[in-house]
Design goal:
The chain has one helix and nine strands. The protein has a six-stranded mixed β-sheet, with no helix packed on it. Strands 1-3-6 form a three-stranded antiparallel β-sheet, with no helix packed on it. It has one domain: Coagulation Factor XIII, Chain A, domain 1 (Distorted Sandwich). Helices cover 4% and strands 34% of the residues. It is mainly β. The longest helix is centred in the N-terminal third of the chain and has 8 residues. The radius of gyration is 16 Å and the shape is globular. Keywords: Cell membrane, Glycoprotein, GPI-anchor, Lipoprotein, Membrane, Signal. It is a lipid-anchor; GPI-anchor. This is Copper acquisition factor BIM1-like domain-containing protein.
């Protein structure tokens, strides 16, 4: 993001700088707590968990920046705490506000996750005043396959990915302060943990709106 653009975005009202995680179902959203790590101020696991395909599935976001840096992490287990050290998507830059479908997010094969395993997915974006914004979804990985009618994948017109695999820190923090820097991406040493993604190409997404990695 150019410095001048970032300064302009930092002056906008906080409500225009946030994002929501619409699928899998997020723990919740509080506009005033979205910058709190982890999970935007929601510390308790949401029940029931969303069933998420072991073979990979989409993340449906709604972004309010015209340019957003995004990264995705995973914590395994029923009580993740703040241990989001598995990289599902290294940081990338997305252009365009509104609905954004992050294509098929898969799991690193080295994890050997089986059906019934619980986990929590955390999406991190850059926010107002250089801080990070956090949303979490509690999931159970299963052998389900999403049908074309429930693919949870939609894109606003002209949204697109403009830069991929940017450097950063797994928890979106800088100098141990607990407040994220402008770049919320993973530590380069964790890059081997991220999943290789295929496009989520089910019929609800038109070619003009594709923003999938």
């Amino acid at each position: 993001m150019h410095y001048s653009t970032f300064n302009l975005l930092a002056l906008l009202p906080f409500a225009t700088a946030h994002f929501t995680l619409n699928w899998p179902t997020a723990r919740g959203f509080d506009d005033t707590q979205a910058g709190s790590f982890p999970c935007g101020g929601f510390d308790e696991v949401k029940s029931p968990r969303t069933e998420f395909p072991l073979g990979g599935g989409p993340l449906q976001l709604n972004l309010e920046h015209t340019s957003t840096q995004v990264a995705v992490y995973l914590s395994l287990g029923s009580d993740p705490g703040n241990n989001y050290n598995i990289v599902l998507r290294p940081q990338f830059k997305e252009q365009g506000p509104g609905d954004f479908c992050l294509g098929e997010v898969g799991l690193p094969s080295s994890l050997n996750i089986t059906s019934g395993t619980n986990g929590t997915i955390q999406v991190v974006t850059n926010g107002h005043a250089g801080g990070g914004l956090y949303q979490c979804a509690d999931v159970t990985f299963t052998n389900i396959t999403l049908s074309q009618s429930d693919n949870h994948c939609a894109n606003n017109t002209n949204v697109k990915v403009t830069q991929e695999n940017m450097p950063g820190n797994p928890n979106g923090t800088s100098s141990g302060t607990g407040t994220s820097s402008e770049t919320p991406g993973p530590n380069p040493s964790s890059a081997a943990a991220h999943a290789t993604a295929a496009g989520w190409l089910l019929g609800a997404v038109g070619a003009a709106g594709l923003a999938l990695l």
